[in-house]
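User: I'm curious whether this sequence folds into something compact or stays loose and floppy. Could you predict its structure so I can see for myself?
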Amino acid sequence: MVVRDAEASRRRILRAATAEFAEHGIAGARMDRVAAQAESSKERIYAYYGNKDALFDAVFTASVARTLEAVAFDPDDLPSYAGRMFDYFADHPAAQRLTTWYRLERPTGRGLDAVIEANRERVEALSRAGHREFPPVALLTLVQAIASGWGTMNPEFAGAAATVDRAERRRTVVEAVRRLIAN
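Assistant: Here's the prediction. I'll summarize afterward.
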């Protein structure tokens, strides 16, 4: 008798789907590749997640949760937050690629609860922190863009940017945010 471990199967599927979506996006992802990598079947994937879009939602929600856990948001120390975000994306490029695919392939619609809640909490925290340089939504946008910018360059410029070592890139991110909020 074969005993199935549904949780282990789900973890394998999410791990395989994370790699597939990070590499190919939603439209380019193939469930047969996910199934093969996860040592599962497409039928099992659909039984657990419903469809490819729902599987992407599960993958991206888990990625957001890992990012939020790893990168503490501190509205009173935005330069350090930007540095931590830079480090996280440099160490976890798949997380940044998933975020990019999410933005490209899900530009409209309700959005995911995890993303909505994280953004709401951060904007509220910025409002309470009393930053006056920019409205909270604009400030969060700018800080996140600065922190993630090195990992989102077009290939033609990425070669030139690669001549700047990681420590200097991080220093530049932290200093840019420090200057952004300087009174």
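Summary: The chain has a mean pLDDT of 92. Residues 26 and 171 are 34 Å apart (CA to CA).
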